[in-house]
Structure formats: C-alpha cells, structure tokens
Design goal:
alpha/beta, two-stranded antiparallel ribbon, Rossmann fold, 5 helices, 209 residues, seven-stranded mixed β-sheet
Length: 209
Amino acid sequence: MNDLSLHAARLRILPPSCGPVRLIAVDGHAGSGKSTFAARLAAVLDDAPVLHLDDLASHEELFDWTDRLRDQVVEPLSHGERARYEPYDWTARSFGPPRTLEPAPVVLVEGVGSGRRALRPFLAQLLWMDLPAAESWERGRRRDGPALTAFWDDWTAAEKAHFSADPSRPSADALVRQLPVGYEWLEGPLATAGENQSVTQRDHSTPPY
C-alpha cells in the first residue's frame, strides 16, 4: 500500500460528516491540479464518487451555486439517499440530463470554492491544492489556449472576489503540493503545523491540471 493509500485509509475512518457520507473537499485555485489529484485519490478509495463543481457552476453563476449544491447533493446525501443533479454544459451553455451520485462511504467534492464556509459543516476534511494563484492561472490559460482568454479574465476576477470574501486555505486540514513525481501532503491544525509527508504517485497519464 503506497503513501497515498495510507492517507486514503485515514479518510475512510473519519467520522461521517454528511449523513453516512464522509464528504472530502479538494479546493484550490483554478489550474492548481485539483481534478488530477481528486481522480488519483478516488482511485485508491475504491473508485469513490467525485463531484466536479464545474458541473454545478455556470457562465452566469461562477460561484453562486451554493443553493444548487445544497438542494441537489448535500440534502439527499445527508439522508443517505442518492443525489441527483443536472451537469452544466459549458459549450451549449445549458444544464444537461441528470446524473446521480451515490451516498458512498467517501465522496470527493472537487472544485474552486469546495471548501467554502457554507459547505464546511458537512465536510469530513478539507484539502487545499497548495499552488499560488498566479502560477495556477497560468497553467490553466496554457491548457485552455487563447480562445478562452476572455473567459479566464472574467474567471480570475471572480475567483479573487470569492476567496477575498470566503477563503478556504486558512481552514484546510491538509495542504497538498504537487512534486515532479507525486505529491507532498502537509497535515496539522489548519494545515500549518504538520509534518511534511511525501506521497509518491508515478502515473502521469493525465496532465497535472
């Protein structure tokens, strides 16, 4: 069992936080590597379900999705029921056919703002992808190309406003930093006083964004 599996094992034995579910948030700036890390963590959690907040946000509501998350996801999971939500299609600019999310023992919520104040009471743990904003956004812009420059300009302004009003990093239980190979996992009270722990993952089939 590798080091990431050891961390996953610790997540499994946390007290449930949302009904029978241990809801784990993976937050961080856009482009910081949340999706890739969440996928790798989910894999060692026996393919735990992952909710991507890109599916709940929209062009008109980049960060105003709290009610949608509460009504469609948190509320049913808190009763041990299957969640049902309509993912947003960023190309068609409309919400699509419903998807379901099972009340598994561990469910990951991945996306910018997943550690927001309104969601924290339902979280078993908050993980923060610890890459500075400017570096994260540059990675995201390179990934998406010049066609989405205007979108990224709007996004970064909205993200700055969100984290200025509702920062997640100070409340994180752990900071996760991507290394050339694998991750570094920093734990402790509010992720500031923990011991550095290296987490090695050698699968680089997915770009680190």
